[in-house]
Amino acid sequence: MPPEPVTRFAPSPTGPLHLGHAYAALIAAERAGAGRFLLRIEDIDQSRCRPEWEAQIYEDLTWLGLRWESPVMRQSERLPVYRAALEQLAAQGLIYPCRCTRADIRAALSAPQEGAPLGPDGVTYPGTCRARPMSDAGREDALRLNMGAALAHVGALGFMENGPVHPGHHRLDRDWLCDVAGDVVLARRDMGTSYHLSVVLDDAAQGITEVTRGADLFEATPIHVLLQALLQLPAPSYYHHDLIRDEHGKRLAKRDDARAIALYRAEGMTPGRLRQMLTQPVAS
Ligand code: GLU
Asked: How many domains are there within the chain?
C-alpha cells in the first residue's frame, strides 16, 4: 500500500492571506485526501512577521472550512535544527561564509545587464567568497552552499512531479544547478537559516510525502532535492499548482492586499462561494 499522503500549507505571516493563499491551502488539503493536512508557519524573517497576521491565518483557514493538526510547526522555534544541519554541511566542507552585498555582487559581474544568468534567488553569485573558510564566519556573514562541491557529493538525482504544470519525473540538471542556481544562500545574515534550508528540514520533520506549492517555486525544487540528498532526508514528491489570475488574466501578486480573504469575508462572501470562485476557470 502507498503511504498515506501528508501535505502541508506553509504561509508566512507577513500580511493578510489572499486568494492565492486560499487556493494553495485548498489544493494542499485536497491532495491530502483522507491522509494528513498540516500547517506550518514560515516565520524566520522576524522583521516582517507579526503575531496578528498569524492569528488571521488561523481565522481565515478555519472560515474556509479547513482543519489541521496541532501543534502547528513554527519555523522560529526550530533554529537549533537549522544550526545542526549547517554544522553537518560545514563538517563536509560544503558551505562557506559570504559578506558580499547585492552591490558587491553586481560589481563583480562583468556585464550584469546582458546575459548574466538569473537563478531562483536572482543573479547567480559569482563565487567571490568561495575560498573563505568557515573558521572565518562572523555575524556579518551569510552562509552559502558550494554548489560544485555539493554536486560532487551526490549521484544522479531527480524528483517526481505530480502537478499539472510540469508533470512527470525530472532529473536534476547539474549544469543548471552550478551555472544558474549557483552557490545559494543557506543561512541569511543574522537569521541563521534561509527559505531553502528550512523548507527542506521542515518538510522532512513533518513527514511530508507530497510538497504542494505554487509553480513560481518550481525552480527552487532542484535545490531542495539536492539538500535532501546531502542531509540524508527522505525525498517527497511534488505538486506545483498553477497560479491563479485575476479577471484580466494577470497573475495575482503575493502581496495584493485588495484580494485579502478578510475583505471578501467582510463583504459577506461565503466560504462556499469563495471556493467556487477559485475552482472556476477565469472567463477571458
Ligand atoms: N512560505 C512559502 C510561501 O508563502 C511557501 C514555501 C513552500 O511551500 O515551499 O510562498
From this structure: 2
Ligand 1, residue 21: give the atom nearest the CA: 4
- And the C-alpha cell for 184? 545559494
The number of beta carbons lying within 10 Å of the beta carbon of residue 137 is: 19
Cα of 243 from ligand 1 centre, angstroms: 13
220 domain-assigned: no
Q: Residue 64 is part of which domain span?
A: 1-77+244-284
At 146-166, the pLDDT tens digits run 999 999 999 999 999 999 989
Q: How far is the CA of 131 from the centre of ligand 1 (A)?
A: 32
CATH of the domain at 63: 3.40.50.620
Q: C-alpha angle with apex 136: 130 to 138, nearest 5 degrees?
A: 105
The pTM (predicted TM-score) of the whole model is 0.94
Cα-to-centroid distance, 238 and ligand 1 (Å): 13
Whether residue 250 lies in the annotated active site: no
232-256 pLDDT, tens digit each? 999 999 999 998 876 677 776 655 6
